[in-house]
Amino acid sequence: MIVWLNGTHGVGKTTTSALVQQLLPDSRVFDAEKVGETLMDIKPGLPVTDNFQHWPPWRLLVVETARRVLDYTGGTLVMPMTVLVERYWREISAGLAEHDIPVRHFVLHADQDTLRARIAGDSVLGPNSPFRLRYLEPYAKAARTWLHAEAEVVDTTPLTPAQAAQHIAEAVKT
Hints:
Strand order of the largest sheet: 2-3-1-4-5
Number of helices: 8
Strand content: 5-15%
Oligomer: single chain
Number of strands: 5
Helix content: 40-55%
């Protein structure tokens, strides 16, 4: 099984995924961003883009890597990865379904003020990361138009990462 943690950049997916992994027996964290980083290292580079998710091989390789890891290890993959383009989510989820891999899709959500405060205090990319701020509106649009309908929404506004992880782990176990 895959437990996919979606949501905008800075909402707490990476932190929460590590905590979810500790709560789910026989689980591992697979950050699909590493697949994108590998593609970015190809020399000469792939066609210029502002987001590696626009490269079709990224979506295919995420599916294939997850499938191969699960075939090898079994258990559960906890995947923290923002996917805000509906077509890309459909490609990935359909690819996983073709291999009979169940997916529990969660969206970590927080209100805009909370997101901005978290991004302002970010110690990973630094305060007020332009990268993270750039995705607030695309996330809000995806949330309104398709994303929240496609996932189990966990409002992290009042929650600590540990509380969000506990909520997700309990949902997966039931």
